[in-house]
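Hi D.,

Good news: the full-assembly prediction came through. Inputs first.
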Amino acid sequence: MGYHLDYAVIWRSLHDLFYGLGLDLYMALFSVALGSLIGLVVAFALVSKRKLFRVLSGAYVTFIRNIPLMIIILFIYFGLPDAGFTFGEIPSFIFALTIYAGAYIAEVFRGGILAIHKGVGEAGMAIGMSNFQIIVHIKIPLLIRSVMPALSNVYISLFKDASVAAVIAVPELTFQTRRINLETFRTIEAWSSASVLYVASCFLIAFMLRRVERRVAIPK
Amino acid sequence: MTNRVLEISNLEKSYGDHKVLKGVSLAMDKGDVISVIGSSGSGKTTLLRCVNLLEDFQEGVIKIDGKEIGYEDVKGKRTKVSAKQVTKDRALTGMVFQSFNLFPHLSAAENITLALKKVQKKSKEESAEIAQHWLERVGLPDRGTSFPGQLSGGQQQRVAIARALAMNPKLMLFDEVTSALDPELINEVLDVIKSVAADGMTMLIVTHEMRFAYEVSNQVIFMNDGLIAEQGTPDAIFKNASSDRLNAFLKNTKF
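Then the structure:
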C-alpha cells in the first residue's frame, strides 16, 4: 500500500513544462496587451455620449463576457475555417483570448473612467483642450492609475486562462502536464508540479504589477 | 465699443422644465471687474458656465470681443458651432472652479504647461518659462515640482489661477473659488485675484465673500431667481441697497 512520490519523471520533462509555461506567458502577454487596447477604446465607447457607440460596445461586452472562454476558443478554432479563415492553434487562441480579455478589461476601465472627478475634465475643457486631448493626457493617465489593483487581478486571471488553450492542443503548460500524466501515470507529481509553476508565475506577475502600481502612483 | 470684452444679451437656460436663467443681459469692458452675488440657485454659477460654454443655452447671445460664441446663424437658424469651434471659443475665457480641479497626476508646473504645449503648441522651454512666470505671479515660485496632493487648498487654487492666466484669456471667470477652502486659506487666494485685477484683467467673479466683492469690483450684480435683480457700484449695492430682496440677502450674509 501507499503511493511513492517520484518526481524523477518530472525532472526529465522539466524542459517541456517550462516550454509550456513560456508559451502561456507569450500568449497571455499578447492577448493582455491587445485586449487592454481594445478595453480602453471600448470603455470610452461604453460611456460615450453617442448612443451608437454605447450600443455597439455594450453588445460586445455583454456577448463576450457571458460566453465561456472555452466556447469562444472552440468557435474560433473550429468555426472560422468553415467560414474560410484558417489560423494555426496559437494565433486562434491569441485571437480568442484577446477579444475575451477586451470585454473584461473594458469593464475595469469603465469603472476607472466613472471614478474620475467630472471637474478635472471640465478644467481641461476650460483651458481649451479638445475632447481627444483630455482623454489622452488627463483621463487615461488618471484612470490607469486608479484601476491598477483591479487590472492586476484581471491580468493574472487571464494568464491562467491561457491554460484553456490545451483543448485545441496548444502545447502549453496544462497540455504538457496532461501529456506527462498520461505517459507516466505520475498524476500527483505532474499536476502538483504544474500547480507550483502556475503559483510561482502568478506570484511573480503580481509582484511586478505591484511595482508598476507603486511606480506610477501619484505623489502625495 | 472696441473695448467691449463680454456682451451677454437675453441669455436663457433651462434644465428640462426648470428655467435657471430667464433673460440675463450684461456687458463688460476691458478691465471691468464684476462680482456676482446672490443666494444659491439664483443662476450665478450657471451664468459663468454658459460664458465658458460648459453649458448649452437655449436663448440669447454671448459675444466675446464682439464675436458670438457657441452658436451661429445658419440660414436663419440658431445652430451650435462645431466641437472644434467650441474648444476655440472656450479658450477665450479662463475659468477657475470651486473645487480647484487641478490634474492630480501632473506637477503644478505641468498643470500649467500641458495646455500651453498641446493647445497653443508652444515649445517645452517656452511653456516652462511661462509656467514659472505665473507660479511666481501667484506667489508659488518654488512649488513647480509639487503635485496637487502635496499642496494646501489655497496653494492648489493659486496654481489653478496661474493655469488659467497662462493661457492669456480675454476674460477670467471665477466660480466661488474660495468656497471649498479652510477659512485661514481664503485670503491668500483673494489677494492673488485682487492683484490680477489690479493688472487690468477683465474678470467676472461669482462669490460669497461680500467684503472681497466690495473691494475688488467696479460693478456688483445681485442675481435672484435667474435674473439680474440689481446692478450697481459696490457702494450702491452694499451701502445703499434699495430693494427688499437685496436687503434680505445682505442681512443674511457676512460682510
